[in-house]
Design a protein that fits this description.
- It is built from 15 helices and 23 strands.
- The protein is of the alpha/beta class.
- The structure holds S-adenosyl-L-homocysteine (SAH) and FE3-S4 cluster.
Length: 481
């Protein structure tokens, strides 16, 4: 592999791995969750063995792939708009082929070919290894579709090509699919049943990243705390495993410990945790290892017990508080973030107030907040009426966002005056004289560059803050450096 250092528009250097001898150009872009971005790196790796190098230029592409998201209607509309753009480019470059990957591919299947004439190829999240065959079909002038969901595929044997990488932080996927069946969510339908990846292959990928200079890994899954390896197979079939398999099984806390011990100077993060699956041993592993970051993304969706039940979330508001209390007891400075949905079917003003009061209790560091969007095929769509008026959803969402901003500022203010370890990731967007990185709690920290470099662990004294950013001054390398 030859490495080309490229300068993107922000002046940040991108490392693109290019394989010599590859003649064709792949333009790949991703929408939606981190898993999609991670999957695109797997796709780029598969196609790099089949004649394709990536390009940053849509106009140059022989093959355009868009990795899509179905989580809300708006996400799908964004992708449809992108397809219009590809259509315009195809007028200049008529040989260009277009493929749709990810959740929209899985949801719409061959309907995509009818609805969007520009599309030549439709590939679901478990079928990426079939891409070379599917591309060959398209080369011969036929459309190609593979949306078969798998019980085993984890792409554990594929070494991803790091796209748009800063060379410092990387995602490593550890589970695929989701069995939780939250009634609002399309993911179990588009990404299939939950399965975990062999810890051996996870460790190999992490060791390889370390040897290439990476300093931080985020372990990814729809529901990482439910990670369970017992030799392969679906999570739901664990009961049927042999005694030997059960005795040697690796759960999420075990996996975290394995990672933290194998690479003691590397930072580890993980996302996402469903509160119902987060056990005490995970929090204990975090507390024990300094290199597991003190940050948990812990979506709750609603503060009302009645709505949580309608959403098929398997915990109550009280159980959630207990979990928060345990986290804060074992890791007092642990940052916590939420996902929240406003206007789920039947949500009353009272339910909404419960959400606000839950937020007051936790005072989240960050939040990702959405108005409910009905998704075809979900239980909520089939059984419930989308009965909260759009204006009410919007008003409640705004109230949630305003409260979140207040809490975010309260949390960033707690960092003032402290000296915190920051991993430098890139130049600050606002100033080329400043570095930007994150502290253990995942808050962005900006400080003057001096002689420090991207990839350094630096102790930074925090002197100012906004609700989203900490500003400070370096006081020296951290002992982790
Ligand atoms: N476990 C996942 C969560 C999936 S989706 C993960 O790893 O991120 C991310 C968030 O989108 C959810 O937590 C939820 O808050 C939001 N979301 C999902 N379906 C939605 C819908 N139908 N309408 C609005 N928001 C939704
Ligand atoms: Fe979706 Fe619930 Fe799984 S939000 S991804 S079904 S945990």
């Amino acid at each position: 592999m030859e490495k080309i250092i490229d300068e993107n528009k922000q002046g940040q250097s991108l490392v693109l791995e290019q394989k010599e001898g590859n003649q064709r150009k792949l333009f790949i872009e991703s929408y939606g969750c981190q898993m999609n971005f991670s999957d695109s790196e797997i796709v780029a790796s598969i196609l790099s063995k089949n004649g394709f190098n990536t390009t940053q230029n849509l106009e140059d592409a022989d093959l355009v792939l868009v990795n899509t998201c179905s989580i809300r209607d708006k996400a799908e509309q964004t992708v449809r708009k992108r397809l219009e753009k590809y259509n315009a480019v195809k007028k200049i470059n008529p040989n260009m082929k277009v493929g749709v990957l990810g959740c929209m591919a899985e949801r719409l299947k061959s309907k995509f070919l009818e609805e969007e004439k520009i599309v030549d190829l439709v590939v679901g999240p478990d079928a990426y290894k079939d891409l070379p065959n599917l591309v060959a079909e398209v080369d011969e002038g036929r459309n190609a579709v593979n949306v078969i969901l798998s019980k085993e595929e984890t792409y554990g044997d594929i070494s991803p090509v790091r796209l748009n990488s800063n060379g410092v932080t990387a995602f490593v996927s550890i589970t695929r699919g989701c069995d939780n069946m939250c009634t609002f969510c399309v993911v179990p339908f588009t990404r299939g049943r939950e399965r975990s990846r062999d810890p051996q292959s996870i460790m190999e990928e992490i060791n390889d990243l370390w040897s290439k200079g990476y300093k931080e890994v985020t372990l990814l899954g729809q529901n990482v705390d439910s990670y369970l390896w017992y030799g392969g197979g679906l999570k739901k079939d664990f009961e049927k495993a042999s005694d030997m398999q059960k005795a040697t099984a690796v759960n999420f806390a075990n996996l975290l410990e394995m990672c933290a011990t194998a690479q003691p100077k590397m930072r580890f993060r993980f996302s996402t945790s469903n509160p119902q699956d987060m056990t005490l041993d995970v929090i204990e592993a975090m507390a024990k290892h300094n290199n597991i970051c003190n940050y948990i993304h812990l979506p709750v969706q609603s503060g009302s017990n009645r709505i949580l039940k309608e959403m098929n979330r398997q915990h109550t508001r009280e159980e959630y508080f207990e979990l928060i209390d345990n986290i804060k007891r074992l890791i007092p400075d642990c940052a916590i973030s939420q996902d929240m949905i406003s206007g789920f079917p039947t949500e009353t003003e009272e339910d909404h107030k419960d959400t606000l009061s839950l937020m007051e209790y936790v005072k989240y560091d960050f939040g990702f907040m959405f108005a409910y969007s009905e998704r075809p095929g979900t239980l909520a769509e089939r059984k419930m009426e989308d009965d909260v008026p759009a204006e009410t959803k919007k008003r409640r969402l705004e109230e949630i966002i305003v409260l979140q901003q207040k809490h975010a500022l309260y949390r960033t203010e707690q960092h003032l005056g402290k000296v915190e370890e920051v991993l430098i990731e890139k130049e600050s967007k606002r100033s080329d004289a400043h570095w930007s990185g994150r502290n253990s709690q995942n808050t962005v920290v900006v400080f003057p560059k001096e002689n420090y470099q991207v990839g350094d662990f630096v102790n930074v004294k925090i002197t100012e803050c906004t609700s989203a950013t900490l500003i400070g001054e370096a006081v020296g390398y951290s002992e982790n450096n």
